[in-house]
Specification:
By secondary structure, the protein is an alpha/beta fold. Helix content is 28%, strand content 27%. The longest helix is centred in the middle third of the chain and has 18 residues.
Length: 218
């Protein structure tokens, strides 16, 4: 399968998050639509283990794919599930517990895990539990989660992970670090650079570019 190295997509939200919600980590529908158009077909099972406000699931339903997902945040889960036809396929819980949800084998996965700066202690994968502070703990948990994800993917299924490198007090090479952890369970295929276009791209994001890491279940 061939993958481009560079694409351009508009950054325009089509399914807005609830009023007052912090949706700065929400990727646009155009990203999901591009990958579903090119790497899936109708009736495929499309999985997002970090569902957020449901962007992946909304686009999947619009394109006659069947969405599945997991979301740890209760408010985000309730809002997304309340808007979806296939709400029963969305679970409130920890992405590391995917094996407990009795999901079918998935044809495709696209997701954007919650980010963490290397200098931070608050770990989003543990809901900020002080017993699990630190960037190294975060990365180790990411490896565990994607090992669980790999188990529910069909053979040769594609997994897309969207990520940004982050400039905080220190530089966090998140794209590289995700690659290192996820490739322990899934086979790397490519990295696609996405340039956001349109006047809203900079208004909604700190970066004009993002990265999509492409993996395959071997």
């Amino acid at each position: 399968m061939n993958y481009p190295t560079y694409i351009e997509l508009p950054f325009t939200a089509e399914h807005n998050a609830p009023m007052g919600a912090d949706n700065c980590d929400q990727y646009p529908e155009s990203l999901v639509r591009y990958f579903l158009e090119n790497y899936t077909k109708e009736d495929d099972c499309v999985f997002d283990p970090f569902l957020g406000f449901g962007t992946t699931a909304f686009v999947a339903e619009d394109m006659a794919r069947t969405p599945y997902g997991v979301e740890a945040d209760g408010e985000r889960f309730e809002w997304a599930a309340g808007q979806l036809e296939n709400w029963q396929n969305i679970k409130h819980g920890d992405a590391a517990d995917i094996g407990a949800y009795d999901f079918p084998a998935m044809d495709f996965c696209i997701t954007s895990p919650p980010y963490m700066l290397c200098e931070d202690t608050w770990n989003p994968l543990y809901g900020g539990d002080p017993d699990y502070e630190g960037y190294n703990v975060y990365l180790a948990r990411m490896a565990v989660i994607f090992k669980a994800i790999a188990k529910v993917m069909k053979k040769d299924a594609v997994v897309i992970v969207q990520a940004d490198n982050i400039q905080g007090q220190h530089y966090t090479p998140l794209v590289h670090d995700f690659y290192q952890q996820i490739s322990k369970s899934l086979t790397p295929q490519a990295e696609i650079i996405v340039r956001w276009t349109g006047k809203k791209s900079i208004d909604h994001r700190d970066y004009e570019l993002t990265h999509c890491l492409v993996f395959k279940k071997s």
